[in-house]
Structures are given as structure tokens and as C-alpha cells.
Amino acid sequence: MAKGVAILVGTRKGAYVFRATGARKRWKLEGPYFGAEPVYHVAFDPRDGSSLYAAVNSAFGGPRIEVSRDLGKTWKTAQNPAFDEPALTFKRTWHIEAGHASQPKVVWAGTEPAGLFRSDDRGMTWTHVPSLRAHATEHEWSPGAGGEGLHSITLDPTDPKRISIGISVAGVYDSADGGRTWTIANRGTRTVMPVPKEVQHHRCVHHLVAHPTVPGVRAQQNHVGTYWGANGGWREISAGLPSDFGFAMALHPGDAETAFVFPLAVPERLAPEPGAAVWRTRDAGKSWKRLAGGLPRGARLEVLREGMSTDRLDPAGVYFGSTTGDLWASADEGKSWSLVAEYLPQILSVGTATLA
Amino acid sequence: MPRVNVRLHGVFSDFAGGARSTTVDASTVGTAIDALAQRFPSLRERLRDEHGRLREHIGVFARGEEIQHAGGESQAVADGDTVHIVPAMSGGG
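^ Those are the sequences you sent over. The predicted structure of the assembly is below.
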């Protein structure tokens, strides 16, 4: 296996893998995989360095999860996540997350309807975690524009029992006991619609991220606001950004105060004038810098919730994909950008695999 | 038990490893689908959801009619009948 980086791209029509050496200058395409099927997420498993998990959400034949043990060369279909309750039918997978390093066979999946599923065999079979939907607020969860999805799963890097999830529209829920019980974790975030002060759910989290090595460091892009985790709640960090709306967010793997977002103007949900830009903070959201070197001037791109990612190299690589099928990369932490691929189908997700 | 032909069209043939047709013993369309899924386990979750319901966007035809306009899965089939499993012509994405 060559050292370097693979960009894992899920699109409206198939998954693409682009590989490069650590210089991240020349990218070689592998795939596409899964033909014309929508792929909402492709996740890398850094624990074995070779597994990929793909959320294939086909209309024909229904949703499924595909697993590769050789970085995408071959794939095997997993047994579907399944709800016991007749009223709930597995409709699609939004996010797949490799489990904690101390649990090498555990993988997590977030679905629509909002459900958390656990695999104990590296993704081949899945068990519903019923405690989450048993939460007292569950009857008030409601679908966002994209559906009622559990789209974010984050793990504490030191404590495998600490898991967090994001649901649209419900918000962030934390578990400190491996998913047996859940607490609402939305304090400090605003609501899209007015709700009574005591209502701590009904928050429209768009994307939740956590630092891969520093415990407790997390951030979220919300429908109303960008937030940094603080004191068990959230501190709004939208000031200095051109919009408090967006979907994509990524953390720097080596610097726990650096994050990247791709703000979108409303109501059009496109990059605000003067066009596509990634915004970076290096001080946990106290200030922001617009990064557009090499990006097309005036191009009002749109990036979806899984559409941006960082690699684990130094300097960190940053990647994003647009709904117009353009895949962009920066090998210098956002300072300059180059086009990896264009004219892809609508890009739904961008992930990375940093290959040792 | 009647011997029934089942023909797989489009992606449903792909999900069955490229098989385009098979013959099963079945008395209704539903039991023909179940027998098909038993023969090709990779088709089971592609045809039905976790509650056993036929998935959306599948057209099932027997005796020249789509079953939803006839007797549904309980529609009887006779020796020599053919059941067609077709990706529904729906959507547009």
C-alpha cells in the first residue's frame, strides 16, 4: 500500500477514490464504484488502514452498506441495518464511523429514520441501538429538508464509552456509557423556529465534528450558527463569517483550535458573493480568515454536510466537493487550492484516508 | 406445487450475480418472490425491507399485469407462468 492520501468521494451517481502521494499534487482516479447509485458517505477505517464503508442509498433495491477490505478494489454487501418497530423502515444511511481504537471490530452507522446502529464485526452486520429512540424527546424529532437523519457520529478519542450524534431536526445527543443512555447536548445553540425556553431539543444541527486526538474538542455547523464546544455546551462562533448558515465543517487533525467551514448564503444556499471560499479559524472561532486562493472567482458553489474533510498529514490537507461536481484540494491548510476533478456527478460527501 | 418462471430485469439481475431467470415452486406471486430470495440470498434485502414488505420502485408482473393492479402478492400463479421483477420506471434522478 502506497503512502499518501486517498480522497473518498460519494456522489449522486457512484463513489470515486482519488489517490496521491504525500505531496498531494497528482491524483489518480480509482472507480467509480456502484454505478448510478447515490453514495451518501464513504468512510475509512484508520484502525486497519484498508477498510472502507460505503453508504449506498439506491432507489432500486433499497439502501445498503458496502464494505471493502482493500481500499475499494473489491466490495461486499453487508446485512442491512434493520428496525424492529414496524413503523420504522431503514431508508438510507447518512454516516458511517469507524469505532474507537480500543474496539477494533466496532463500527457505527447513522440512518434515516434517525437511528444509531452498531456493528461488532467490522461492518458486516448491524444492530439497532434502541436507547436513542427511547429518549423522551423522540416523539418531537422532525425531518429537515433532507429527511429525518442521524447524520453525524463522533467518538471521544480516549474514552470509547463517550459517543455523540447529530440528528436533523433534534440536535446533538451525548452518551457517556457506550450508547445505553443519552442526554441532550444543545445548550447554547439557537433554534430555527421559536420554542419555549425549556425545550432543549429541536435544534437543526447540520454537521457535528470532533477532534480525532484531543478529547472534548468539538464543533458544529448548524442551520443557525457555527458553534464551538465549550463547558459542556456550545459557544457561537459565527461572528466574522459571511453567513451563519452552512453544512460542511472540518477540524484540523494536528491543531485543536483550527477548523474549516464553507458558509452558504440564504436563501439560495450558495457561497456568498464574491464566490467560493473556505473560511478558517486558528483560535477556536474567535476570528476567521477567508481562503480562496486558486478557487474560481465568482463561482457560487454549494457544499453539503459531508462535503469537506481534512487529512492527517502535516501540513494538513483540506478537501471539499461541490454539488456541481468539482473536487478541490489544498495541501497547505487552505492557503491555496487546486482542482482534483471536475464534471463529477453531484458530490454528496468527501472523506479522506491517510495511508501509512 | 406449480413450477413458475421468474425473470429478473435490470439491477435485479445484477443483485443475483447476473442470473436472468430461474424456476421456482410457488402457488402465489409472494411465495415465488420468497423462493427466489431463498435461491439468491443476495436478493432478499433488495426485494423486501426489514418487515418483509416489498420495496418501493419494484414492478412485479404476473400474467401480463402488474400485481398491484391485480391480487398483490397473494395473486395465484399456475404451472408455466412467468413472474417478472422489474426496476420500476419511476424517479428521474
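The first strand of chain A starts at residue 4 and ends at 11. The interface with chain B takes residues 12, 38, 58-62, 64, 77, 79-80, 82-83, 86, 89-90 of chain A (CB under 8 Å).

Shout if you want it in another format.
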